[in-house]
Design brief:
CATH topology of the largest domain: Quinone Oxidoreductase, Chain A, domain 1
Number of domains: 2
Order of helices and strands: EEEHEEHEEHHEHEHEHEHEEHEHE
Radius of gyration: 20 Å
Largest sheet: 7 strands, mixed
Distance between the termini: 25 Å
CATH class of the largest domain: Alpha Beta
Number of helices: 10
Oligomer: single chain
Structural class: alpha/beta
């Protein structure tokens, strides 16, 4: 089979498309003919070595966690799935799954075939959701849903969403729209997109200081911040926009410890959507797409022959929504 392969830590320029053995499913696993896979920031953090102490990789390594495809083989003891069934879901490198204690392991989704551990991280792809769109849903959907559930948001609260134009933002903003007042950070280029997601007001983070502009509009501060982009000192500075007793929910790796904010009145929660998955999580996300709550999350599509370029583009450009690699697609668009 063809697969996208990293043979050492480094940028996606080092990736190659190679012939690799087709992986076989062991007990509790299933084999999938992959039809589409999407790219997440964590894919780059793992392959460039940024989080190698947390998630060490064995090389050669096939990246890709989010996918959609057709079940082709079942390992011993697999229930709830059948050969020929269309599925979508999430799987991680063994070191990640073992480190955080989840039953979601894969041989790597950026390949013609992959094996996945059966369980709640896989679900049937419903009619009306294409393989490409389904492949774009798992990580962002799991995390976005977890943020909304963890936030305890009350009607009418003021919520600042930092990084609203990214993949997780395309889930969080629509799910909260109409329930809370959303102030979203974006750029002039993505203004229309983020507004269509449901943001009430926008802050161009390239043109103004996020905390200062938020406090200018809301002198008492906002009730909550959902951080989908910032790390370290920039996040600590942005948190100054929180009212006394405010809540910060962050999805970025390496988010500061609560003590770093110099305020004992704040509630700081780091959200990992992969830890909050139930049997109904992926079906719920797909249902919200089908009922129109969530938009089509794809911003760029690539054929598998362009998979290296897809990762290069993802690493090198500011982007909104999701980048998807299709095993049957033509040139990038």
């Amino acid at each position: 089979m063809k697969a996208l392969v990293a043979r050492q830590y480094g940028p996606p320029d080092l990736f190659t498309i190679e012939d690799r053995p087709v992986p076989e499913p062991g007990p509790g696993w299933l084999q999938v003919r992959v039809r589409a896979a999407s790219i997440n920031p964590a894919d780059l953090l793992m392959t460039d070595g940024t989080i190698r102490e947390m998630v060490p990789l064995d090389f050669p390594y096939i990246p890709g966690t989010d996918f959609a495809g057709t079940v082709t083989k079942l390992g011993p003891g697999v229930d709830g799935f059948s050969v020929g069934e269309e599925v979508f879901g999430f799987g991680a490198p063994p070191s990640f799954a073992q480190g955080v204690g989840i039953s979601a392991v894969t041989s790597g989704a950026m390949a013609e075939y992959a094996v996945f551990q059966a369980g709640a991280y896989l679900a049937r792809r419903p009619d009306g959701v294409s393989p490409e769109v389904a492949a774009a849903l798992p990580s962002t959907g799991m995390t976005g849903l977890a943020v909304v559930e963890a936030g305890g948001f009350e009607p009418g609260e003021k919520v600042l969403v930092i990084g609203a134009g990214g993949g997780i933002g395309s889930v969080v903003v629509p799910l909260l729209a109409g329930r809370v007042e959303i102030i979203a950070t974006t750029t002039g280029e993505d203004e229309n997109y983020v507004r269509k997601l449901g943001a009430g007001s926008l802050i161009d983070y390239l043109e103004t200081d996020i905390a200062e502009e938020t406090l200018r509009r809301h002198p008492g501060g906002v009730d909550a911040i959902i951080n989908l982009a910032l790390k370290g000192e920039p996040l600590i500075e942005a948190a100054k926009a929180l009212r006394p007793g405010g809540r910060l929910l962050s999805t970025t790796p390496g988010s500061p410890q609560p003590s770093a904010f110099g305020r004992d009145d704040l509630t700081v929660t780091v959200v990992m959507g992969t830890l909050k998955v139930r049997n109904d999580t992926l079906p719920t996300i797909a249902a919200r797409l089908l009922d129109g709550t969530l938009p089509d999350p794809i911003s760029r599509r690539y054929g598998f022959d362009d998979a290296v370029r897809a990762f290069q583009d993802f690493a090198g450009m500011r982007h909104r929504g999701k980048f998807v690699v299709s095993m049957a697609e033509g040139p990038a668009r």
